[in-house]
Write a structure and sequence with these properties.
The protein has helices spanning 2-19, 25-31, 45-65, 67-71, 82-85, 95-113, 117-137, 154-157, 164-184, 202-219, 225-238, 271-274, 280-288, 294-297, 333-339, 413-425, 433-447, 454-458, 469-479, 484-494, 518-523, 525-534, and strands at 75-77, 141-142, 161-162, 249-252, 276-278, 304-307, 320-321, 324-325, 345-349, 407-411. It has 563 residues and is mainly alpha-helical. The strands form 4 sheets. It has a 4-stranded mixed sheet, with no helix packed on it.
Length: 563
């Protein structure tokens, strides 16, 4: 009723203005004033921080669990899988990232007005983190003229796209400034509870900013090796970076109705959770090295295939529990989880007639034509359960974070250790590559509750340090579980791990970038043209032209890596 009455009042005002419009200007101005709005010039920075920090972390882990997890073959999906499995990244919008930047820009302005170094440092760190993701994924983007839409100049209404080089240079400069600000920051006036990462600890934010600098120095190391080398060596010498898992930049999930892990299973609507399957590429890596993190991340198949050459059919039409035949070919997902947990379900097949994967953990090969039917699924369908393929482990069904394991992790001590391991392999003055490599593994095992198996694990074949970049990048790829955007950047930069795509991929190579969104073409077509000119066509750019998932942005030009 309230909505209807407002509509009638609006129509009435329109009619009145139609008769005598010259007398309506003041009234319209009054109607457009929100009596409950907060004047941006008076907003408290403490009230801005939670939205900025939560949105940035959740957006990052969303990439790491969804499209990027598919791109680096941590997971595949058996439903609604075009973007996840097959690089269907046409017209990807960055609106959500720029929305974070607008709020963050207000935080920065208020921090400057208040002459508050801590809030300035936080805003510059978050600006760098968000723009880092934008340029990592799209390439050139509005940067120097962005976030100025409230100014009347035409160039700010239709901001130019800065080159990827300019954006990375700006990110590094801003992070350096943030580090300096944190050195002298007074945290008076900071509400610790509103700093969702570090509770108002300026020293922790300085470590975070320096660790992001390490990430982006390494990112540009092929194009600007001297800059990267000097930057990484200086931060290593300072010792002022994330060194332990307790210092990781993370967002906790409380389990509340508005704060739940991204893949949470909902009993009445389990389809979304059931879409996530292990990728066979990742399963091969984890099983081949007896990785203790495997059961933390993935569930065994609900029903394991058992070969039986005596069968006169390709496969039984029923499942067995502890060897005893049951009258069903499958159970609903919730029954397997809630009513039959720990039971030993099997199904027999004749290997002379059909081939199935009979392992305890089974993944979907990448970019399958019909992933929902893989490995003899008796109930295929988009988003339905596949009892013969591994899904996410049961902890990912929970509303909260059991054991405090599930977090949105922006950057970790494990990643920092692997950065130093790679830098040491380049011959840079950052200590021992071997020590950093083992530190990265140990810290990742600690995060996932498996550090007790560290000594056993590093003695496994293929894990004991062999002084190669491929091995370091493989273990960094494994440790980037739920932070797959970083693994995607590493793959494009180094070519490791050696990923191969599947039959449904439009091109026979892994994609390199997101396409620009329709909003940019519709509203900023002139500015986007220069960005398209700077993209490099490849043999796999296909019919999209330069704005293709397989075109090279500046960071990956002048090389044959990753393909």
């Amino acid at each position: 009723m309230k909505i209807t009455s407002k509509l009638y009042r609006g129509l009435l005002m329109a009619l009145i203005c139609g008769v005598g419009f010259t007398g309506c200007d003041d009234k319209l101005d009054e109607m457009n004033i929100n009596p409950y709005g907060i004047d941006p010039a008076e907003v408290n920075p403490n009230l801005l921080m939670p939205s900025i920090l939560a949105s940035a972390a959740q957006s990052y882990v969303d990439l790491g669990v969804n499209n990027m997890a598919g791109a680096v073959q941590h997971t595949q999906k058996n439903g609604w899988y075009g973007g996840h499995n097959n690089y269907s990244w046409e017209s990807e919008s960055w609106a959500g990232w720029y929305a974070i930047l607008r709020n963050n820009n207000l935080l920065y302005k208020r921090a400057v007005e208040m002459d508050h170094a801590f809030f300035q440092g936080v805003s510059m760190t978050m600006k760098s983190f968000v723009f880092g993701n934008i340029t990592d994924l799209w390439g050139d983007a509005p940067y120097t003229d962005a976030l100025k839409g409230d100014e009347l100049a035409a160039e700010f209404q239709f901001p130019k796209f800065d080159s990827q080089e300019v954006i990375y240079d700006g990110i590094i400069a801003d992070l350096q400034t943030a580090v300096t600000l944190f050195n002298s920051a007074n945290t008076g006036g900071v509400t610790a509870a509103n700093d969702l990462y570090y509770g108002g600890d300026a020293a922790a934010w300085k470590r975070f900013a320096n660790s992001l600098l390490l990430r982006y120095y390494l990112r540009i190391s092929s194009q600007k090796p001297d800059v990267a080398k000097a930057g990484i060596e200086a931060i290593y010498a300072s010792g002022d970076y994330i060194q332990s898992t307790s210092q990781d930049a993370v967002l906790d999930y409380t389990g509340g109705a508005s704060d739940i892990w991204i893949t949470r299973h909902v009993a009445l609507n389990p389809n979304d959770f059931q879409r996530y399957q292990a990728c066979q590429t990742f399963i091969d890596q984890l099983m081949g090295t007896s990785d203790p993190r495997l059961p933390v991340w993935f569930a065994p198949v609900r029903v394991q295939w058992v070969p039986d050459e005596s069968l006169d059919v390709a496969a039984e039409a029923f499942i067995r529990n502890n060897g005893e035949p049951l009258g069903v070919v499958t159970y609903p997902f919730d029954d397997f989880v809630n009513n039959y947990a720990g039971e030993n379900f099997t199904r027999r097949y004749n290997p002379d007639m059909v081939s199935y994967n009979e392992a305890e953990y089974v993944g979907l090969p990448p970019a399958l034509m019909i992933p929902e039917s893989y490995n003899g699924n008796p109930s295929p369908g988009q988003g339905t359960q596949n009892q013969h393929v591994s899904q996410l482990a049961d902890i990912y069904q929970s509303a909260g974070s059991p054991g405090d394991i599930l977090k949105a992790r922006l950057i970790s001590s494990a990643e920092v250790s692997f950065i130093f391991a790679e830098a040491a392999l380049k011959g840079w003055n950052v200590g021992s590559a071997e020590e950093h490599y083992y530190d990265g593994i140990e810290k990742s095992l600690m995060v996932w509750g498996k550090v007790a198996e560290y000594e056993r694990f590093i003695a496994e074949e293929g894990i004991t340090f062999n002084n190669t970049l491929e091995q370091v990048m493989e273990q960094k790829w494994v440790a980037s579980w739920t932070a797959a955007a970083e693994a995607f950047a590493d793959y494009r930069r180094t070519g490791y791990p050696r990923l191969q795509t599947g039959p449904q991929s439009p091109q026979p190579k892994i994609a390199l970038r997101f396409q620009y969104g329709e909003d940019e073409y519709n509203n900023n077509a002139i500015s986007i043209a220069a960005a398209l000119d700077r993209l490099q066509l490849t043999d796999y750019s296909g019919g999209f032209g330069k704005d293709s998932q397989w075109s090279r942005s500046w960071l990956y030009q002048g090389t044959t890596i990753p393909w």
